[in-house]
Amino acid sequence: MHEPTTIRLRGCAKTFDDGTVALQPLDLDIGAAETVVLLGPSGCGKTTMLRIIAGLEQPDAGGEVWFGDTPVTHLPIEQRGVGMVFQNYALFPNMTVAENIAYGLRVRRIAGAKRQRRVDEMLAMMHLESFADRRIDQLSGGQRQRVALARALAIEPRVLLLDEPLTALDAKLRDALRADINQLLRSLHITAVYVTHDQAEAMALGDRIIVMDKGRIAQAGTPHDIY
């Protein structure tokens, strides 16, 4: 894996074409290998901030995004080295579990043997070995989310971004997968940004919680501080 990277946002704001102000100008520093949770209700700006870090949205003029010492503000998502996990999994239904996990490696032209080894590692890490040849529509919600995580991590990203990954799951499954994700983030030593509206989830996962309100950072601190 790469050395963990820091993330810096400087003067990042976002106003959409229709005049909606999604994000007020804000600065944020995320430490290497830190898990930061962006917490708040719908429309508070947390997903916009995540998308700016990912490169799916550009900040308004003057805003800057840095990964370590590298300015990435104008780099597209595929050049930033980010892994993304979405609420709706965004998996390819016409591919098997193994093919989904291999997708990012194939795009990056990672050779066959090395690619297979990496896919096998991911299947083992996510306890999906017995599902490798299954199609996505044969999986439960929790299994799909594990595949999405495996696919995001297979490319050895510098940064892992998770957008409400547990929202679509029932409560019992959510708790189990939350514990798995927590353990995973600790063991991987990767810089992670996690978006949620669920306070319990934020408290369980975050080294630091950023509470968002109306496009601003309302509060920031450890789970203990916020509590």
Tell me about this structure.
This protein has 227 residues and is an alpha/beta fold. The protein is built from 7 helices and 10 strands. It has helices at residues 46-54, 97-107, 112-125, 141-154, 171-188, 199-205, 223-226; strands spanning 7-15, 21-30, 35-39, 64-67, 70-71, 82-85, 159-163, 191-196, 208-213, 216-221. A 6-stranded mixed beta sheet has the order 6-7-8-3-9-10, with helices on both faces. Strands 2-1-4-5 form a 4-stranded antiparallel beta sheet, with helices on one face. The protein starts with 6 loop residues before the first strand and ends with a helix.
Q: What topology does this entry show?
A:
Blueprint (H helix, E strand, L loop, with lengths): L6 E9 L5 E10 L4 E5 L6 H9 L9 E4 L2 E2 L10 E4 L11 H11 L4 H14 L15 H14 L4 E5 L7 H18 L2 E6 L2 H7 L2 E6 L2 E6 L1 H4 L1
Parallel strand pairs: 3-8, 3-9, 6-7, 7-8
Antiparallel strand pairs: 1-2, 1-4, 4-5, 9-10
Helix pairs in contact: 2-3, 2-4, 3-4
Q: Which stretches are low in confidence, meaning pLDDT under 50 for 5 or more residues running?
A: none
What is the straight-line distance between the termini? 34 Å
Give the ordered list of helices and strands: EEEHEEEHHHEHEHEEH
Please tell me the overall pLDDT.
93
Q: Major sheet, described briefly?
A: 6 strands, mixed
DSSP summary, beta strand count: 10
| Largest sheet, spatial ordering of strands | 6-7-8-3-9-10
Helix count from the secondary structure assignment: 7
The shape, in one word, is globular
Structural class, please? alpha/beta
Radius of gyration: 17 Å
Helical percentage? 25-40%
Q: How much β-strand is present in the residues?
A: 25-35%
